[in-house]
Prior knowledge:
Shape: globular
Number of helices: 15
Number of domains: 1
Structural class: alpha/beta
Largest sheet: 7 strands, mixed
Radius of gyration: 18 Å
Bound molecules: zinc ion
Helix content: 25-40%
Strand content: 5-15%
Order of helices and strands: EHHEEHHHHEEHHEHHHEHHEEHH
Amino acid sequence: MSRGERDKRILFFFVDGLGIGPADGDVNPLLVARLPHLESLVGSIDMARWREGVHGERATLVPLDATLGVPGLPQSATGQTALFTGVNAAKLIGRHKEARPNRLLKSVLYKHGLIPVLCRAGMKATFANAYTTTSIPRYVAGEAPMSCTSAMAYYGEGCFRDTAMFNRGQAVYFDLTGRYARRRGDDATLMTPARAGEALARIALAHDFTLYEYFLTDFAGHRQNMGRAVRYLEDVDAALGAVLNYYDLERYLLILTSDHGNVEDLSTRSHTKNPVPLLVAGPGHEAFASRCDDLMDVAPATFKYFGVDPVKYSGQPIRTELIKLPE
Ligand SMILES: [Zn+2]
């Protein structure tokens, strides 16, 4: 498929640990946080409506089953692998696996992951997240275990965005602001979540497919910290607001979803079995969302949107050397 032949783009905003929770503001920060930009897409933040599905003019929100049909609480490595590949990773290894993918899950991400497959299909698919100066060589040397998203970036693009790119607005930190990178000794210029959202929109406009991962929501859920949970959700909403300003929803798709529940119920420190919201905005949002009932449906719907047969692009040899991203 040649680029320019079809004017399609997806910005995939992945928010770790965000489910559709109880209608109780004492435990559910979604009901406490001010989320005007999310509301502008789906109307009120009403958990009962979200469980039913919201079919609006600008966007569709449907609940996704995140349990993968396997007993126990959903976890990140299997949930994300399922979300980003369409393969039921928990059934494959017989359990939900927390944190980072094992060897088998990494091979699934390599073969069927959104970024590797789209890159092999000749498309510009990217992971927008920035990495600290010390972390990149450790990943490349195999000294630090990669997350699902890092593995996909490495297998697809063969490179990682760094702090210098973040400072130029060409990468976005997982905390949106760059605070974490400064604590790790990087000379990151602090930015507001809105400024980070603008950078994300610009990256997305220069690529066919752009993935961004925000995971402080999961962190706040494990800490059962209402104050932080509210602040993180409001940061995500501020970034979303900038995306709505600078990305072109008249022409391109925006997806926001999660791998499992957590932050939406602070009465427990663990993940939840709640469904996760799949928000789709932009042209054809209803059609895209209507194909999705559980985590495994999102990657196939994405391949279908781009007209890419994932089987055809699952087999090429793995890339091993680090290449430089184009400026
Ligand atoms: Zn977690």
